[in-house]
Amino acid sequence: MNEIYSNIQTVTPGDLDDLTTFWRSIKGVGLGKGDDLESLERFVRRNPTTCFLVRDDKRIIGSVLGGFDGRRGYVYHLAVIPEKRRQGLGRLLMDTVCRELEQLGAHKIHLFVLNDNPDAIGFYQRLGWIRRTDIQVMSSDRSFLSASGD
Questions:
Q1: Distance CA 15, CA 18 (A)
Q2: What is the CATH number of the domain that holds 61?
Q3: Are 31 and 52 in contact (CB under 8 A)?
Q4: Other CB atoms closer than 10 Å to residue 69's CB: what's the count?
Q5: Domain of residue 112, residue span
Q6: Rounded distance, CA 55 to CA 141, Å?
Q7: Which of 10, 123, 128, 130 is deepest in the core (most CB within 10 A)?
Q8: How far apart are CA 13 and CA 4, in angstroms?
Q9: Bridge partners for 67 per DSSP
Q10: How many domains is the chain built from?
Q11: pTM reported for the whole predicted model
């Protein structure tokens, strides 16, 4: 594990092409409109200390993005290649991003998991995360709202 820990590095804009290719290869990682290179670069520049990846030689084997809005922390795109799962890398990435978010002042951290990803849901539950049943996630495509005239 110490070898893996020494390979954790912060994400830079130069890593984003490789990261999006990596995420597309991982079942259960959902990519959407906010995952284009321009949006991801903006995210990484705004959160330079909370986005991490791990490489095994040159290939990416794990990643996590953390964002802080000044109040809450958010975790996105935790992913580990299948052959490196259940070896502590996902836990290590989560511990690292959460520690950094807490240092920035996040007293609560949220993450989003696709409903059809029971492996991820189980992983987070084993780490002590609680599935919220008191709220619903609501999203808005602002360009759609602007076009509707409402």
A1: 6
A2: 3.40.630.30
A3: no
A4: 10
A5: 2-148
A6: 34
A7: 123
A8: 22
A9: 74
A10: 1
A11: 0.88
Partners of 111 in the β-ladder: 75
Of 63, 88, 83, 61, give the one whose Cα is nearest residue 12: 63
* pLDDT tens-digit readout, 82-92: 999 999 999 99
Which strand (E) or helix (H) includes residue 8? strand 8-10
Could you tell me which of 100, 103, 71, 129 has the C-alpha nearest to residue 11? Answer: 100
Residue 77 near residue 21 (C-beta atoms within 8 A) = no
DSSP 3-state of 107: coil
Tokens 């095994």 found at: 56
Give the number of other Cβ atoms within 10 Å of residue 139's Cβ: 5
Reference 77, options 108, 47, 104; nearest CA is 47
Distance CA 144, CA 124 (A): 33
**pLDDT one-digit tens code per residue, 29-82:** 989 888 999 999 999 999 999 999 999 988 999 999 999 999 999 999 999 999
CB atoms within 10 A of CB 125: 11
Where do runs of H (alpha helix) occur along 7-141? 16-24, 37-46, 89-104, 118-126
